[in-house]
Amino acid sequence: MGGLTPESARRIHADSFVFDGHNDLAGPLSRGESLDDRAGRGHLDLRRMREGGFDGGIFAVFIDPAEEDPLGRTLAGVQHLRATLEAHPEFRVVLSGSDMVTDPDDRRIAAVIGVEGGYAIEDDLAPVDQLFDAGMRCLTLTWNDPTAWADASGTERDEGLTDLGRRLVDRLQRLGVLVDLSHASDGTASDVFERADRPVVSSHAGMRGLAPLPRNISDHHLEAIAETGGLTGISLFNGHLDADFEERCTPLRAREFSDTEELARAVRAEVGTLPMSAVVNHVRHAIRIVGPEHIGLGSDFDGMWALPDGLEDVSRLPDLSAALATVFDATGLPAFLGANWVRVLRAALP
Fold this sequence. Notes:
single chain; TIM Barrel; nine-stranded parallel sheet; 15 helices; 41% helix
């Protein structure tokens, strides 16, 4: 592919519906930070979304599994996020496939509410319905820790889904909740593929073929996701893009930081960063395996602390499109930027 110039890629970006498969802005919002302008903190706010041509995304609610009452806290997080977005005139909450409209006259930012880590669902399917009723339309089955019914990547055990986990995946698909395999173990992912009758995704991941980390996605699973009609969101996190960078960050994980901003400064000062070409290489690899129809953006904005040079926040997405001119043509780039996500969500949601 390729054949675009950076200038033509920027024009395509400006004309495209740009959708990102994973961000963690819900956390800062729950702590009282502004949806409109966070004064440069983190990676996302309305001001910078507009600057970057951001038209929508999956806004994930994350609740630490080590804390008590995961169901109550997750429900409260979903309800708070939904209320915050619905109260803002420049956002619209997506609850069905028909809500995924790309009309250029509708300038509202499309927000799909996700939950990252199914820790609220311990030994009963009832919480799935409660979370769906509250507005959840995407569930990342695990985070770094396994749930009671699914194993996570990077842990010793990998027995995949339990019987409850299999019934839960079936229930999610019947309701119209997008199943997200980010953080899931290979065994869990394989069990999901056997049951998939709607598209499934890995919303934010690097390519294991380039960065051999358990958290990243293998070429085999890239292909399996594509066979469901789903896609893989390419992460912008340096720790997903380069295994050596992730290893060099290990000593910092043992230290206490006042906030993510302080951690990000320490990483940049002590570990360094990566060039934007690292993202381009992962996109190129994914295209080689599954083509441009089954990949998209999966930034992990506000969920991590190290982005490549030139991608400091959402406002810099047009610069990423310019860098991707070498790997996409005029059809592939808008598909990657958002059209693929729109297709998947229209098929997966109720």
